[in-house]
Every structure is written in structure tokens, then in C-alpha cells.
Known about the structure:
Chain A is an alpha+beta fold. Chain A has helices spanning 12-17, 23-76, 82-89, 99-105, 169-179, 192-197, 206-215, 220-223, 227-234, 244-249, 254-264; strands at 108-115, 122-129, 139-145, 155-158. Among the domains of chain A are: 35-78; 80-168 and 187-224, Nucleosome assembly protein (Arylsulfatase, C-terminal domain).
Amino acid sequence: xxxxxxxxxxxxxxxxxxxxxxxxxxxxxxxxxxxxxxxxxxxxxxxxxxxxxxxxxxxxxxxxxxxxxxxxxxxxxxxxxxxxxxxxxxxxxxxxxxxxxxxxxxxxxxxxxxxxxxxxxxxxxxxxxxxxxxxxxxxxxxxxxxxxxxxxxxxxxxxxxxxxxxxxxxxxxxxxxxxxxxxxxxxxxxxxxxxxxxxxxxxxxxxxxxxxxxxxxxxxxxxxxxxxxxxxxxxxxxxxxxxxxxxxxxxxxxxxxxxxxxxxx
Amino acid sequence: xxxxxxxxxxxxxxxxxxxxxxxxxxxxxxxxxxxxxxxxxxxxxxxxxxxxxxxxxxxxxxxxxxxxxxxxxxxxxxxxxxxxxxxxxxxxxxxxxxxxxxxxxxxxxxxxxxxxxxxxxxxxxxxxxxxxxxxxxxxxxxxxxxxxxxxxxxxxxxxxxxxxxxxxxxxxxxxxxxxxxxxxxxxxxxxxxxxxxxxxxxxxxxxxxxxxxxxxxxxxxxxxxxxxxxxxxxxxxxxxxxxxxxxxxxxxxxxxxxxxxxxxx
Lengths: 265, 265
């Protein structure tokens, strides 16, 4: 916002209520305001410089991290079902993943978050898929252009998915869910592919942010069983009361963890 | 969160469902997990270093800004009613300021935000008052210790106010407001001094954050009439439709702006 140092202060009203000021006092006030304006400009300039330096640090580390992320991706490709497992284990991401989508993400071979060189301006999330029965694409990308540069309007776009006949999960899944009368979960997006294809509100895309700022930072922690659970299994027959609330949310996936519970008991 | 590389992966369940893997395949997977863990540790270490460098930049600029803030405070003290005007003009802060509190804040001579040397660990907001009919204190400080260091619990504390007899605005104001049957505004805090004395939720103290991250960064912009309004006065008799919504919120303060409107017409 551009500001003007004009004599039209809101406090003129209150000034008017007070005993009249001498011309000297008013002149000093006016001088003080000019001095204040130039002092504030110096502070603003420092803030600008601070932001720039911080951006530089972030860019430097982005470049330093890049080879590690590449190496990490190569290692991950040696571990079957790594990404789908990490997503299934992620407390928030798992909530948008429908069972059939989980089957589809078994073919997710590589996930990649690419930040723009000016990291404030946006990022891409690339999903690389093996050949699969659902769609023809090898890569599905959701691109975020957050427009910090040049004050562009924030937009996101997603690769159009070339679904195989009758395998379009954005069409078949909602129908199935409606037919089964399943209550909606309290979430902005109902399914993974609904999230992927929805570009209505790019600056409030919680799922994209979770992928970028949480899953991508350390997917291993989600692939592995969290500490807490391991400790609870060691507890005397502990049924894991602490995360009972979470489990209750996931009743629908109950079948999928049965094997695991058999193992634990 | 501490993580362990244990053989208890959640995906054991799904692995079990699949055709049995050869010992070789399992060994490779296990090797890959170890490589992944060490690669992730290197990424974590880089992230740690990035955070430290960013903190250093912030500390450097905090030190560089300090003399300008001091100079700014000296200049501001030459401008009568500066802080109370800036607060009254601030769209959010003004909403917690009751009329009688505004009178009290006319004695607010200096405002200061002091960040801890480790800026993540907290900050103080100092309100310096001239001698006034409300309380004896010369300085009212609200201190935030956000406990980023050593994982302390976040706490805030406020200087106990030595109110003069019958001038305790935390007691007289709520009574008056209740007597007048005034509906509460939709805000966490109802009055300025209720905010100041309330330390129940230091990490979600919106008002403190507005003072620190908005008002303190550039109080001049709030002291001055925003551009928008000036332009609207130049418009043909413009009644300022754009911010009519805001004005409607402030009906209660209508008397206070009458003088100003007279001047404008």
C-alpha cells in the first residue's frame, strides 16, 4: 500500500477538541512527521534487505538439498510401495485416500517436489507412475504458481489425466461412495484425485502444503511405524488408548490393518 | 519426534499379502532402508543448518533495526497522541479499544517491542505512560516467553496494574457494557485491558501478534489516513462505499468521527 504524508490525519478530529496549539507546536509536529517518515523508510529498506538475505539462504540450501533429494528418490525406488505406504501412514493425507485410489497409488514409483528458484513464487509436485490399469500418463504434475513475483494471481494447474475406459476414479469413486451412503469426512477434499484435479483455491491447498512441507521433508518417518506405536505394543497389552480417537476415524480401513494386529498379538 | 529404524513397518501387512519375496529382495529392501535413513539424516542436518543461518540473518537485522526504532520512538514522542491514534486507526486493534480506554491511552507516551536475542524464544511489549488518573505504573509490560528454547511451556505475563480507586477499567468497563446491554463484538478479547491482563493462551495471542508484526513494523501508516480515504474524498462526493462494511461495524464509535466528517463535507 502506498502511503502519503498529507495533512489529512484522522486525529485532526481529536486535535480539534483540545486547546488550540500554537503555530510553533504544529510546525514541530509537521517536522516530526517528516522525520518519522524518513526514519520509517530506512526501517522498511532494512526489512527489504533482510527478506532478500533470507531468500538467498533458502535458495542456497535448496540447491544444497537437491542432490540429496535425488539420491533419496533413487534409494526409495528400491523399496516397493514406499510412497503409498508413507501416504497411508500419514495422519492427514491418509484421510483423502480411498481404498481404490490406494490400489492405484501402488503404481506410484516416484514423488518429487520441485520448488521454483524463487521459492516464494511456487512449486511443482510430480507423481511418476509405472504402467498401470488406471491411466495412460507416466507423470501427473500439479503446478502451483503463487505469484509472489510481479503480483500475479495465484494459480494451480494439474496434468489432464488420460483415464482408461471406466477407470476414471474422479467419476466412479464419488458414485460408489454416494451409493454406499457413506458420510463425507470433514475435509475440503474427499478423495486423492479430487484433490489433484481441483484448482479452485491454490493458496489454501492444505493437501499440497502437507505434501511439500511435511511428507517431502521426511517421508521415512511416515513409512516407518511411529515410535509411539512401538512403545504401546511393548506396554502391557496396551490397546493404544492415546490414539484411539484417530483409529476411530479410520474404521473404514479396519480390514487393512487386521493382518498387522494379528502379528502384534 | 525420535524415529527408529525397526523392522516393524506398517507395510508388512501389505507385503504379506503379496507373493513371497525372495530373501535377496528383502535384504535389498533392508539395505535400501538403511541408506535412506542415512540420506534423510543428511537432509535433516542441512535443514537444521538452514534454520540456524536464517536465525542469524534475523538477529543481524534485529540489531541493525534497533537504533532506527530508538530514533523513531524519540521522533514519535514529539507527536501528541501518536500511538493512540495509530491504534484507533488500526482496523483490528481498534476493535478492542473501548472509548474510556482510548482516553486512558491518550497518556501512552511510548510503545516498544523488544524481541529476545533468540527471536524465536519470545518478546516484550512495553507501554510507557505519562502520569495519568488511571493507574500508578509508569510502564506496563506484557512479556511473552514462547519457549522455543529448551522446550519450555509458552507463557505470557503482564505487569500488575496499580489502578487508582474506582478507575480499574477491567472492572468498571465490563459492568458499564453489561448495563448498556451492548452486544459483544465477535472477538477473543473485549477490551484493551482485558487483552493486556489475559495470559491464558500465550501462543494464540492475536492482539500481541498484531502489535508486534504489524503496528510496530510501520505505525506511521496507521497514524496517517490511508490513501484510499483521501482518494474517496477527492471523488465526486464519494461516501466511501468500499469501506462501508467496515464503517457499519463501527456504529458505536459514530460520535467520535462526526467532527471528521464535518470537516470532509
